[in-house]
Amino acid sequence: MARPRKTGKLRTLAKFATTPEPPYYAVIFSSQRTEGDNGYRQIAERMVELASQQPGFLGAESVRGTDGFGITVSYWASAEAMAAWKGNVEHLAAQEMGKQKWYEHYELRVAKVERAYAKPSA
Amino acid sequence: MARPRKTGKLRTLAKFATTPEPPYYAVIFSSQRTEGDNGYRQIAERMVELASQQPGFLGAESVRGTDGFGITVSYWASAEAMAAWKGNVEHLAAQEMGKQKWYEHYELRVAKVERAYAKPSA
After folding, report:
1. Nearest residue, CB atoms, B69 vs list A15, A109, A119
2. Hey, are the CB atoms on B17 and A107 less than 8 Å from each other?
């Protein structure tokens, strides 16, 4: 289970998600941010906090480059857990803000993880 | 199909992969680089070129932060296409270099994409 931690001012997850043996689900979210913050940072921080409290949340990994292109992958125990998060009222409002203000372009892909490997080996 | 393009000195793919309707496969590679280049950049560039020539390669998306943590997701038409790339001789040598020199830690997850959404809509 990913543990939120304090890193500077931003509450973030550990870099690597600690996931169980497959199968489980991954939501791959690739996005290009618009210019300016427009309330993004505060809500993004809140979404990390809220997602990590959801039943079936396994962890997330996220990187954004200086050009505003980023990839966030969140991991979920079941299709039901993903659906519940997708329909969370506070998250729905954030999704709408994302479409309207924060992302110039995004691609969201829902995938079922079938195999996993690591270094160091688990 | 992702088109390699020149960006500065590094040959890279377009930021967003243009993928077909699901199902298809995703290889999610999260990694923490070691200090120093150790031949990484040149080989990474070569792997992008080589992967994009593989049958069944659909595209890739990649970001690395200034702290050396990165996520690369490559997309493949079939399990057979992924297996062929995994077993490519030049790629096998690069994988070994990755384990020995370039990555302090990595997680590689193979997943089947079941659904996809985008803004702007496809």
Report:
1. A15
2. yes
- Whether residue B11 has pLDDT greater than 60: no
Q: Kindly state the helix (H) or strand (E) to which residue A25 belongs, with its residue range.
A: strand A24-33
The answer to ipTM > 0.95 is no
Q: Which two structure tokens, joined as six digits, stand for A43?
A: 């809500």
Q: How many CA atoms lie within 13 A of A3 on its CB side?
A: 2
pTM of the model as a whole: 0.89
Contacts of A110 in chain B (CB under 8 A): 113-116
Q: How many CB atoms lie within 10 A of CB B91?
A: 18
pLDDT confidence tier of residue B73, bands split at 50, 70 and 90: very high
* CA-to-CA dists, residue A115 to A17, A62, A118, B72, angstroms: 15, 20, 11, 16
Question: Which residue in this structure is represented by tokens 């990165």?
Answer: B70
For residue B13, the model assigns a pLDDT of 56
pLDDT tens-digit readout, A58-89: 999 999 999 999 999 999 999 999 999 999 99
Given a contact cutoff of 8 angstroms between Cβ atoms, the answer to whether A40 and A81 are in contact is no
Exposure string of B73-83, with b = 16+ CB inside 10 Å and e = fewer, is bbbbbeeebbe
DSSP state of B15: S
Report yes or no: B41 and B93 within 8 Å, Cβ to Cβ. Answer: no
